[in-house]
Amino acid sequence: MTITYDALKKADADRCAELESQLFPGDDPWPARAFHAELAAKHNHYIAARSEGRLVGYAGISRLGRVRPYEYEVHTIGVDPDFQGQGIGRRLLAGMLEFASGGVVFLEVRTDNVPAIKLYESVGFVNIGLRKRYYRASGADAYTMQRLPAGSPS
């Protein structure tokens, strides 16, 4: 099986929404229109993972601010359950971090999402805070995590 990576397209929005409903059923999954809005935003960068042309993963990051040094915020990462555990999420995250090269990157992650937390920690993210009831639909808490640019003082 070969996975290819390219830009997420507006035509992928319905498939993204389908995956969101599988991956985040109790946390207000994004509908297709949310992906359309994200893809239209000037400072967002979205990546797709495809197997035989079918979307199996997606990830998005946004550049914050108008002047350097920029900060970035990971908006989403999702991988089809049938394709998890194959490094696709790690590769998507690497693409977003490459886009954010030289900037501080933030994200929120459910406190009970241990695989995602381990992934983020493995590439230098650290927990900097707790956001109570961040996920409104389920009431789940989230950690805010931060990754400093390479060479930054801790």
Automatic annotation (TrEMBL):
Signal peptide: none annotated. It is found in: Cytoplasm. Keywords: Cytoplasm, Transferase. Its main location: cytoplasm. It comes from the Bacteria. GO terms for molecular function: protein-N-terminal-alanine acetyltransferase activity. Pfam families: Acetyltransf_1 (PF00583). It catalyses: N-terminal L-alanyl-[ribosomal protein bS18] + acetyl-CoA = N-terminal N(alpha)-acetyl-L-alanyl-[ribosomal protein bS18] + CoA + H(+). Its EC number is 2.3.1.266. GO terms for cellular component: cytoplasm. It is an enzyme of class 2 (transferase). Gene3D superfamilies: 3.40.630.30. Residues 3-150 form the N-acetyltransferase domain. Acetylates the N-terminal alanine of ribosomal protein bS18. Belongs to the acetyltransferase family. RimI subfamily. PANTHER family: L-AMINO ACID N-ACETYLTRANSFERASE, N-ALPHA-ACETYLTRANSFERASE RIMI. This is [Ribosomal protein bS18]-alanine N-acetyltransferase.
